[in-house]
Amino acid sequence: MALGIGGLAAPAPAGAPVGPSTLHIIFDKYPDECDRIQIGSASPVPIRKKAYLTAEVWPGSVPMAGFGCRGQDRHPFLFQVGEGEQYIYFGKALGGEYDHWEQPGIAQGRALIAKRRQAGSITLDETSPSINLLGGKYTGPAPWILEPSLGAEDYRIAQNREVRGRIVYPDGMTFTGRLKGKEPISGQIDYPDGSRYIGELGKYGTKGKFGLVGTGRLIAPDGSVFAGEFKGNRANGIGVCSAPGGRPESCLRTKGKPAPLPSAADTARERVRKQEEVDIDRAIAPTTAELAKSRKVSEALQEDIRLAPQRVRQRDARMEKECRCYLHGCLEIRDSNAPRPTEAQKRLWDLQDQQRTRQCRAWDSGRSVDLDTRVEAEIASLRAKVAREDGRRLELERQMAAQRKAIAQKQAAERSEKERIARANEEKMRQDAIDGQKKRCEATFATYGFACGCSAFLPNAPKERADNLKGNACPA
């Protein structure tokens, strides 16, 4: 059984913990000579030796307190309760001191309670005191458990866990549902104006606020419902709208506001048109890539033309330095300790020297032409390359146009059939959404005897139980 807020039973949402842990507190002594013990917010109960007390509590930091203790009226202490079956033992049967408590394992704990009588049973619906969370006051099971850090038993870190709790905000808005640590996952939000949301929640916006994100149902105070997708804390997209006494029908919300819903035929045409554009882009992608490459080559050649005078001067300076020995001769100095080259290496070096000498002589003979003339010749050569690249690009553009035309002709021949199929799929999708909401309402009503915002889907059910606008819990 899942425990609701204020002791009211509420249906457990999917994915929530199965239930609270079972905590057995075994007494073979009075803890610190106290005669009563309090667990969480429950009333203190008497401590009896050779007995045990059972408490159903959610895992987490569970506050306890002894009353009528030696030397003081109240002695508080804190236990970390994990998931599942848990045991706390006061006494010396485990070899401990009288002023010591221990936490035996499951097998040992079961053996201990088998020989003792049960003195009482307590059920708690919360193990966390009211805390500030997301701008409101949270009550419910502790959303995190403090566990020892690795290698540092005296330092505890918070481990998030999934719980069901409630947050009350200063403006009167309340959230009841599932959280993982500090993050709401899904549940019910009741707004001050009487409207209600049931569904998924998540982060939105650049600041990571929490709100309506995902699939859900928004119920207005008059009982009208929008069921569908939510984004950025607002209804957004095609969903199902219904009004009490009216028929459910497909509708559209844009940033939370009603918008005209295109017909299934218009939606189908638009979907086919977008797919045709995708198909064309995919088919001409190789040609598009070649065109982009050609443009980059032309841009690089234009930059070379702009820098031609500077680069001719730089080339002259570099060749002047590199060709000094090849044109005028240099004294060769060899390291006597270096290994002697082989005949093959000598022949290769000779060939390289001859080639480099020819290059340098050709460059030197070209220096007879003045600098401006050489710059103009360089620019003319580059412009010829630009012209060739422009011609190649023009041919690629012709090919692309031919590809587009051929694909468009094929698409035109197939468009009518594709639009017919897309329209049928759109109509089915809209009807499936309506049928899905109806099935959810029927299943919820059959299980719990009431539902929220379902009167349009359950015309034969009592309106007050099909709307349940004043109820404390809304099953999804």
Pick out the low-confidence regions. Answer: 1-18
Total number of helices: 8
Overall average pLDDT: 81
Terminal Cα separation, in Å? 17 Å
Strand content: 25-35%
Largest sheet: 12 strands, antiparallel
How helix-rich are the residues, as a percent range? 25-40%
Overall radius of gyration: 41 Å
The counted number of beta strands is 23
Tell the overall outline: flat
Quickly give the structural class: alpha+beta
Topology:
Layout: E1 21-27, E2 36-39, E3 45-46, E4 51-57, E5 60-69, E6 72-81, E7 85-90, E8 101-102, H1 106-114, E9 117-123, E10 128-133, E11 136-140, E12 144-149, E13 152-160, E14 162-168, E15 174-180, E16 183-190, E17 196-204, E18 209-219, E19 225-231, E20 234-235, E21 237-242, E22 249-254, E23 257-259, H2 264-283, H3 285-306, H4 308-322, H5 324-328, H6 343-366, H7 371-448, H8 463-467
Parallel strand pairs: 1-7, 4-9
Antiparallel strand pairs: 1-4, 2-3, 2-5, 5-6, 7-8, 10-11, 11-14, 12-13, 14-15, 15-16, 16-17, 17-18, 18-19, 19-20, 19-21, 21-22, 22-23
Helix pairs in contact: 2-7, 3-7, 4-7
Question: What does it look like?
Answer:
The chain has 476 residues and is of the alpha+beta class. 37% of the residues lie in helices and 31% in strands. The protein is built from 8 helices and 23 strands. The protein has helices spanning 106-114, 264-283, 285-306, 308-322, 324-328, 343-366, 371-448, 463-467, and strands at residues 21-27, 36-39, 45-46, 51-57, 60-69, 72-81, 85-90, 101-102, 117-123, 128-133, 136-140, 144-149, 152-160, 162-168, 174-180, 183-190, 196-204, 209-219, 225-231, 234-235, 237-242, 249-254, 257-259. The strands form 4 sheets. Strands 10, 11, 14, 15, 16, 17, 18, 19, 20, 21, 22 and 23 form a 12-stranded antiparallel sheet that branches. Helix 2 packs antiparallel against helix 7, helix 3 runs antiparallel to helix 7 and helix 4 (308-322) packs across helix 7 (371-448). The protein is flat, with a radius of gyration of 41 Å.
